[in-house]
Every structure is written in structure tokens, then in C-alpha cells.
Amino acid sequence: MSATRDQKITHDVGDRISYTLRPVVSFKLENWEKRRAAMQDVCSSCHATGWIENFYKQYEGTVDLYNEKFAKPAKSIMEKLYASGKLTKTPFDEKIEWTYYELWHHQGRRARMGTAMMGPDYTQWHGFYEVSKTFYTEFIPEAEKLMPGVTADVMKSDYHKWTQGLTPEQIQQQIEFYKKRYNQ
Ligand code: HEC
User: Fold this and answer.
1) Domain encompassing residue 73
2) Which of 97, 112, 146, 154 has a Cα-to-Cα distance from 42 of 20 to 30 A?
3) 124 in a domain, yes or no?
4) What is the pLDDT along the chain (184 residues), one digit of tens a residue?
């Protein structure tokens, strides 16, 4: 909202927002580059460029991970369930509709907003941890029960194929990755 050397004060709090985190799948708003530049101009009143760029890199990474790994796959599965008549058109009269809603509307939004607002606890523990738990232990099994095979393509993707088990080489790769990363 604040003025900077180059911008007047605004009371339109959405003016400098570049993403919408409201829908199931987040997307960038019209003129997002202009909006983001205006926000970054505010950040730069106090922070160095690298600091601001790192924030946005992390923010993009979070939204992208949420979108690609969970939101788009869950949405596509729900669409298949509706299209094949496995669910009625009435919202919230079936359990999976509640599961899906909590996945994107509660947990998925917390993960995204946690990053936007610099609250790592919300991104991880009240966000991605719960998104993953709901996705793997409720949403996927509930969808499979309604329509066997409907999650097959999603679960075969690079994001989720770990559930099918790892080869000894992949396990070794992971051990080495963590050894190097944490120097132990
Ligand atoms: C008025 C000055 C000011 C502006 C404007 C400002 N910040 Fe900050 N920012 C600070 C201060 C001071 C801290 C340290 C707060 C603390 O440690 O309690 C901080 C902390 C941070 C942190 C670290 C948070 C953490 O949990 O360690 C990040 C990241 C950050 N700012 C990014 C931004 C971004 C991105 C913008 C623009 C959208 C922005 N800041 C705008 C003053 C500002």
C-alpha cells in the first residue's frame, strides 16, 4: 500500500499482487509483471535486490509445486469422476467432495499463503504436510474406490511414482544426496 520514491500510496491492496491463490489451481493475474514490479519496488525500499529475488523464487517454487503435484492432478481426477457419473452434480453430498475441498481450499491455500506471508510453519506443517497426507491417504483411495483405475495416470507421474517403491540405485542416490547436503 505504501508510497515509494516512484509510486504514490494506494488503498487498493490487490494492486501489486501478482498471483491469485484463491482457486484450486493458482494462476498469475493480468499484467502480473507490472504488478510484481510495483511490489518489488516497495520491497526495495528496505531490502537488497538479491533478497527480494530469492523471496519470489521461493514463492514461485511453492505455488508451482502445489499446482503441478497436487492441484492439477486432483482436479483432473474429480473431473473424471463427475464426467463418468460416479458423483452427483450436487456439491458436498459425497465424502470425496469434502476431502477435495479441504485439500485445496484449506490445506493447499495455507501452503501457498504461508509462503506469500513468510510463514514457513504454515507452508510446511499446516500446509504441504497436510496436503500430502490428505492426497495420499484419503483423496486417492476414495477416488479409487469410486472408480478403480481413475488415479493410475497421476500416480505413474514423476511426482508420485515413489509410491511404487524405489530401486536399490535410487535409494543409494538419496542417501548420497542427504549425506552431501547435511555433511554427515
Ligand atoms: C519498511 C521496510 C520493509 C519493507 C517495505 C519490506 N520489508 Fe521485508 N523485512 C523488513 C525487516 C525489518 C525484516 C526483519 C524482520 C524481523 O526479523 O523481525 C524483514 C524481513 C523479511 C524477510 C525475512 C522473513 C523471515 O522470516 O526471516 C523476507 C523474506 C522479506 N522481509 C521480504 C520482503 C519482501 C518480498 C518485501 C516486499 C513485498 C518486503 N520484505 C518488504 C523490512 C521491510
Assistant:
1) 54-150
2) 112
3) yes
4) 889 999 999 999 999 999 999 999 999 999 999 999 999 999 999 999 999 999 999 999 999 999 999 999 999 999 999 999 999 999 999 999 999 999 999 999 999 999 999 999 999 999 999 999 999 999 999 999 999 999 999 999 999 999 999 899 999 999 999 999 998 7
Secondary structure of residue 70 in the 3-state scheme? helix
- 8 Å CB contact between 80 and 147: yes
In-domain check, residue 160? no
Q: Describe the crossing of helices 49-65 and 32-43 by its angle, rounded to 10 degrees.
A: 140
Compute, in angstroms, the gap from residue 13 CA to the centroid of ligand 1: 17
The grid coordinates of residue 18 equal 501478482
Residue nearest to atom 39 of ligand 1 (CA): 43
Residue 54 CA to ligand 1 centre (angstroms): 12
Report yes or no on 110 lying in a domain. Answer: yes
In the chain, the number of structural domains is 1
